[in-house]
Specification:
single chain, 2 domains, 10 helices, 0% strand
């Protein structure tokens, strides 16, 4: 049986099950063929592969932690992120998929060092451990960041604090990059962490 025949038979099954539901709930609910087809085709054509995407990004950018990641850990992280407010979950996903708009990632020519005054390249890998950025976030949240990278990414033993910390780090980075870069770099060069 070919792939097309399999999909066709599955579509027939889905339509038949929707028809049966329609017959049972006729006075209450209309049968929505377009909706049934859309739901079926979305899952068939675009399966949820966020776990594969995150794993590929971890292999590429954080190869040392890949042996520590498990399927169960991804499931826990996925359920955990779904329980968070959308803005926090979006920043977690953005970080897990290496989606920060760092200068290095965007291939910008003007500046390739850290926005916070370090001599390191402006990459996500550096920003997660940047001394200046982490000290500002530690001061704001009143606690220090976990040493383990998986804990910082909220992929291992996720907690509200680790998710909020990652949200604040990501938001601080992108706010500085978007609008206050020159003023912030001057404060970093002067070493005035309290003014930051």
């Amino acid at each position: 049986m070919s792939s097309c025949e399999t999909k066709s038979s599955l579509l027939i099954i889905v339509c038949e099950s929707e028809r049966l539901v329609f017959e049972r709930d006729f006075p209450l609910k209309r049968f929505k063929l377009k909706r049934a087809l859309s739901d079926f085709l979305l899952v068939a054509l675009f399966p949820d592969d966020i776990q594969g995407t995150i794993l590929r990004r971890l292999i590429k950018y954080f190869p040392s932690v890949v042996p520590l990641v498990s399927v169960e850990g991804f499931d826990v992280a996925k359920r955990f992120s779904a329980s968070l407010p959308c803005c926090v979950a979006q920043q977690l996903l953005r970080t897990w998929a290496n989606g920060w708009t760092t200068i290095f990632l965007m291939h910008e020519n003007e500046l390739c060092t850290c926005l916070f005054g370090c001599a390191e390249n402006d990459t996500l890998q550096h920003c997660l451990f940047c001394i200046v950025l982490c000290s500002v976030v530690d001061c704001a949240l009143g606690s220090s960041a976990p040493v383990c990278l998986l804990s910082r990414l909220a992929l291992s033993s996720p907690s509200i604090l680790s998710a909020c910390r990652l949200y604040v780090v990501c938001s601080c980075y992108h706010t500085v990059k978007a609008s206050h870069c020159s003023r912030f770099r001057a404060l970093c060069v002067a070493g005035d962490v309290s003014a930051i």
